[in-house]
Design brief:
Layout (H helix, E strand, L loop, with lengths): L2 H5 L6 H14 L4 H7 L7 H11 L2 H6 L2 H5 L5 H13 L1 H12 L7 H7 L7 E5 L7 H10 L3 E3 L8 E4 L5 H9 L3 E2 L1 H16 L1
Parallel strand pairs: 1-2, 1-3, 3-4
Helix pairs in contact: 2-3, 3-4, 9-12
């Protein structure tokens, strides 16, 4: 991570950048919890970072969650949920995350590493339509990260159709075949519940 490049991002002042870089250096060989704490989300300290990662398993899943899913976590609530959503929706922060990822920082919790490999194992997904927060490639990466497979066409072998707005013919075919239809929120819930079962 280059200091000058971070200073060029909107909202990143000298002290904030210095604190971030110090936290990042300390986090490289450590947990996703340290990364989540170091990036400077208002109200998210170590204890809240633990709660978020215990629920979602990794930082990308937290970024994709909606306010209701975040607020439902015991110890988080609406105020922190709004702060988390605001941080992840801010484009300079999204650029920062990509820089951190490229620098090799840990985005998956230790629990997530164990459960993520198994939570969607053996399940085949087809993605169609426009999702609320995830791009198609991001949704595909999330599914694969948790052990699932994303294919391009609906068939009897498809376990789930992940459908957004303007889903079209794939949705019609999935309905005819009786394939379960998931929203983006349903997918995140499925990952979380499957991860919890895998961890117990």
């Amino acid at each position: 991570l280059e200091r000058d490049a971070l200073l060029a991002l909107e909202g990143f002042k000298q002290k904030k950048v210095d604190n971030l870089l110090a936290g990042v250096e300390a986090s490289k060989a450590q947990s996703a919890e340290r990364v989540l704490t170091a990036i400077g989300i208002r109200f998210v300290g170590s204890s809240v970072a633990k709660l978020l990662l215990a629920q979602f398993g990794d930082i990308d899943a937290i970024a994709a969650a909606d306010a209701e899913q975040l607020a439902e976590i015991d110890g988080v609530g609406p105020r922190i949920a709004a702060s988390v959503m605001a941080w992840f929706s801010h484009e300079p922060n999204q650029q920062l995350l990509e820089r951190l990822r490229a620098a090799g920082l840990q985005f998956v919790s230790e629990r997530g590493m164990v459960s993520a490999e198994q939570s969607l194992a053996g399940k085949t997904f087809v993605i169609t339509g426009t999702l609320p927060t995830l791009g198609r490639s991001e949704a595909k990466a999330l599914i694969e990260q948790h052990g699932g497979k994303a294919t391009s066409s609906v068939s009897k072998k498809t376990d789930y159709l992940l459908a957004g707005e303007k889903a079209g013919s794939k949705l019609t075919k999935a309905q005819k075949l009786g394939i379960p239809i998931l929203s983006e929120a349903d997918l995140l819930t499925l990952i979380t519940k499957s991860s919890e079962r895998a961890a117990t």
